[in-house]
Design brief:
The chain has 768 residues and is α+β, with helices and mostly antiparallel strands. Strand 23 and strand 24 form a beta hairpin. The strands form seven sheets. The chain has a 15-stranded antiparallel sheet that branches. Strands 20-29-30-31-34 form a five-stranded antiparallel sheet. Helix content is 34%, strand content 25%.
């Protein structure tokens, strides 16, 4: 039997409040947003934050479990695969004298929900009562194991306030809203199947109840329900413990039920104290590899920890057939589909702190190449055009219509026209390989992605009478403007993609000739085709004006109506709602970072002196109608030395999920924005970048930040970087790995594990 001391330790959150997200009371208008914020996830399954006891009505449990890779097409939009809702394994109901617990206004002040980000757990406590004012004191705990990803665990502690009360406690696994087909059902084990793909989900569960540390046998009331009934005594302590194991399998794979039962048996043998301990050690390891520490700005520190908590919980390095959706596993907005967000806003974090997770995410793109090839072919082009919205197969899953901000149906052209996705995937592949030196990945998967996406662009860009190659009829990141020609972001990224593919072909020929023979034969690529690609890259229109130093966002952009967006600064709705869809399309107002995003990703493409001009021009015309936008602006502002401007973008990005005024969080956290918070800190304020074969730093902290420190990985090495604003000092420690050279503010230094490298503003020269 477990002791009260063990329970107390379990329910005691981390003492440092910067690791805690806390919510007291109850507000039904904010409950769904808070459920997303307090979600737990381990990359295989996620559970939205939930109140431990089901009370019905507006106090109904908001638990929602989502399992990565389980998509189905059932619902109101036929043909659109959606991430299926898994059975609710956390449901608990209590009756006192036959009356259920209900909402009492007097109970609200004693309700509290705590997300312990350091430990990766949710803790709840409160006083609960029924209509007759019979009550219990409750503490709860639940987690999704980071060390054994199939396992979820729930513990509820109850203390009876009155004696001689008839108590009924029911624990169940609720599948009412699942929508999956039941394939097998027995007590403690269920297997479900999707209608479309035949993917199967098995759930095995074990539930125990202790009263005053004595095990009490349950009465089986159903295949997925456990029930107990007894008469209370004052101060009586009840402990409900539930473990579940969830496993996923394809239609042709072995029965997932056996794997679920084996995972559950292993967890039961380990016992919950040890299960919690290994879970907490796994989180400790993740924090050691990723924690960003800020001195002097508590709100920034809290924002970074919240972002890193969700980022670390979103990935599963063991699964190369799933990626991270726009809401990760914290909600099912966008149906659990994968966008460019993953490669552009998330991969930098994983590449530099968790390369195993980054590799798995890129392998998802490799494993969905067939869908990308099919999409390109269906539209009359060669190579691979990745889906704008991707699910399990890589086929395009973008809906044809959605409800717009004005509640009217809007045609969606992104699935056909937002083609920069292929260059975005290629960009992430190259950045990963460049930062990790994972040659095996490049040979076995990355090179094929680079070559096939380059082949797409070479077929997509058409040579016209002006001697330039043009890409017409696209949508760039700024989705206010559709069916445009020569979007600068798209064209410059396409050119970059083609050049990296040609470089990759040359590298394979030189370093791994057998790999090149195999791959070039498989893809039927010859020297003549590579030369054609090179000509496309040399002649593609970019929209750059050497006189002004500006990239024109797309052909004709500078002729559109120039509206002063500052005149609408006090608006409470998106600018496209204020001005109307038609006028916004005729204006120079942009939805989100477009040329600014290009500046963030490929600063080397901007001739000297033009970066600031482009940032000033486009930042003043951006409506930030996407949660992705401010992060890109923050990175660029920091790199340009505008640290306070960047800090403002950092705070606005942080507020999206942490501020209760943003009800848009109810569909899940904005995982790309959370990745953007890390990017502003590390790629912006610390100035981390890759140039040639060197890791580079160019720090510029905002005034409030006294210091910034973080770990990162670079080509098999583990580094710790510390920036002290007061002394303009940088300290870099090589914790493991071979010596290397790195550039700090443009000067080259040598670093070995013998001693840290310390550089301050008075340093005159580096070590070549």
């Amino acid at each position: 039997m477990n002791s009260p001391e063990q329970w107390d330790r379990l329910m005691c959150p981390t003492a440092d409040s910067s690791w805690i997200a806390r919510e007291g009371g109850y507000d039904p208008l904010l409950e769904r947003s808070r459920a997303a914020r307090f979600a737990i996830s381990n990359g295989f399954f996620g559970v939205r934050g939930v109140r431990a006891i089901h009370r019905g009505g507006r106090w109904a449990a908001t638990s929602r479990t989502l399992v990565a890779g389980v998509f189905d097409t059932a619902g109101e939009e036929p043909g659109i695969p959606k991430l299926a809702v898994a059975p609710d394994w956390l449901k608990v109901r209590i009756l006192l004298q036959g009356e259920p617990l209900i909402h009492h206004v007097d109970d609200e002040a004693r309700q509290e929900r705590i997300l312990d980000m350091r430990r990766g757990v949710v803790i709840g406590k409160g006083d609960l009562s029924n209509e007759s004012a019979f009550g219990v004191k409750m503490r709860s705990f639940h987690m999704a194991s980071l060390s054994q990803r199939a396992i979820g665990m729930q513990i509820i502690l109850l203390e009876m306030e009155q004696g001689a009360i008839e108590v009924t406690l029911e624990a169940s696994i609720d599948a009412v809203d699942v929508g999956l087909l039941s394939e097998r059902s027995e007590h403690g084990l269920s297997v479900w199947r999707t209608r479309s793909s035949g993917t199967r989900l098995a759930v095995a569960a074990a539930v125990t109840l202790q009263i005053d540390r004595q095990l009490i046998p349950f009465t089986v009331c159903g295949l997925s329900q456990w029930s107990w009934k007894w008469t209370s005594t004052p101060g009586q302590v009840i402990c409900l413990t539930r473990m579940v194991a969830m496993t996923r399998a394809g239609k042709d794979d072995i029965d997932p039920a056996r794997a679920a039962q084996e995972a559950l048996a292993s967890a039961q043998t380990l016992g919950w104290p040890a299960l919690v301990a290994v879970h907490e050690r796994a989180w400790q390891d993740r924090w050691a590899c990723s924690e960003v520490e800020v001195e002097g700005d508590p709100s920034a520190q809290r924002a970074l920890r919240f972002a890193l908590y969700h980022l670390n919980g979103a990935a599963n390095p063991a699964d190369e057939h799933v990626s991270i959706a726009a809401k990760a596993l914290t909600g099912d907005d966008y149906h659990g589909h994968v966008f460019w967000d993953t490669e552009i806003y998330l991969l930098p974090f994983y590449t530099l702190t968790w390369p195993e997770a980054a590799r798995a995410l890129l392998m998802y793109r490799f494993n969905t190449l067939a869908g990308a090839r099919q999409k390109a072919a269906s539209m009359g082009w060669q190579g691979a055009l990745y889906a704008w919205e991707s699910a399990d197969t890589g086929a395009e899953t973008c809906p044809l219509q959605v409800v717009g901000p004005d509640r009217k149906l809007v045609d969606v052209n992104c699935g056909k026209q937002e083609q920069h996705i292929s260059a975005d995937v290629a960009y992430a592949v190259w950045q990963y390989w460049h930062a990790t030196g994972d040659d095996a990945f490049l040979r076995e998967a990355g090179a094929e992605i680079l070559l096939e996406t380059a082949r797409f662009w070479a077929s997509r860009a058409k040579l016209e009478s002006d001697g330039r190659c043009h890409i017409r009829g696209v949508i760039g990141p700024d989705e206010y403007h559709e069916s445009i020609d020569d979007n600068a972001f798209t064209n410059v990224m396409a050119r970059w993609n083609i050049r990296r593919a040609i470089e990759t072909a040359a590298l394979l020929r030189t370093s791994w000739p057998e790999s090149w023979r195999r791959l070039s034969g498989q893809l039927k690529i010859d020297e003549a085709e590579l030369q054609r690609w090179g000509r496309v890259a040399e002649t593609i229109a970019t929209g750059f004006d050497s006189n002004t130093g500006l990239f024109e966002q797309f052909a004709g952009f500078f002729t559109l109506e120039d509206i002063d967006i500052a005149a609408y600064a006090g608006r409470s709705v998106p600018i496209d709602v204020v001005l109307g869809r038609e006028r916004i399309q005729r204006s120079r107002i942009v939805k989100q970072a477009d040329v600014v995003a290009l500046l963030a990703l490929l600063p080397e493409e901007f001739p000297r002196g033009s970066a600031a001009a482009n940032f000033e021009y486009y930042a003043s015309r951006c409506g930030h109608g996407s949660s992705l936008s401010r992060a890109m602006h923050g990175i660029v502002a920091a790199r340009l030395g505008q640290s306070e401007v960047a800090l403002d973008f950092f705070r606005q990005t942080s507020a999206i999920d942490l501020d209760d005024t943003h009800v848009a969080t109810e569909g899940g956290v904005h995982i790309a924005s959370l990745g953007g918070i890390w990017m502003i800190a590390v790629l912006g304020f610390a100035g981390v970048s890759f140039a040639g074969d060197h890791l580079c730093l160019a720090p510029a902290l905002p005034a409030a930040w006294k210091s910034l420190s973080f770990p990162m990985q670079w080509r098999g090495r583990h580094l710790r970087i510390e920036i002290n604003d007061a002394s303009a000092g940088v300290r870099v420690t090589l914790e493991t790995g071979d010596p290397l050279k790195l550039a700090i503010n443009g000067e080259l230094f040598a670093l070995s594990s013998a001693e840290p490298l310390v550089v301050n503003s008075k340093t005159q020269a580096g070590v070549a």
